[in-house]
Amino acid sequence: MELVGAHLSNAEIAARLCISVRTVESHVSSLLRKLEVPDRRALARRALTPARPAPVLPTPLTSFIGRVSERAELTEMIKAYR
User: Fold this and answer.
1) pTM of the full predicted structure?
2) Where is the HTH luxR-type domain positioned along the sequence (predicted)?
3) How far apart are CA 78 and CA 73, in angstroms?
């Protein structure tokens, strides 16, 4: 998408990436479909807009801090079954 955003042609993108023009056409077509944009210009604009931040992951409900005895028990169980 970055190279489409730089307004390069399919042939120029193919030359930079050492792949066939047909492969570039296929990937551009897939991007247009998946991102639901009508044309290369819209795809180029989309490439220039900053990505949305990743969602904040929930904090774990428990931690292993202070659970030394449980960790030791698990270690012994694993050793017993090996």
Assistant:
1) 0.60
2) 1-51
3) 9
Q: What is the per-residue pLDDT for 64?
A: 66
| AA letter at 57 | L
Q: Quick one: CA torsion of 29, 32, 33, 36, rounded to 10 degrees? A: -170
Say if residue 18's pLDDT is above 90: yes
pLDDT tens track for 29-45: 999 999 999 999 999 99
CATH number of 1-50: 1.10.10.10
Collapse the DSSP code of 65 into the 3-class scheme (helix H, G, I; strand E, B; otherwise coil) and give the result.
coil
Rounded Cα distance between 50 and 41, Å, is 16
pLDDT, average across residues 49-69: 76
How is residue 39 annotated by DSSP?
S
Residues 6+ apart with CB under 8 A from 64: 70, 71
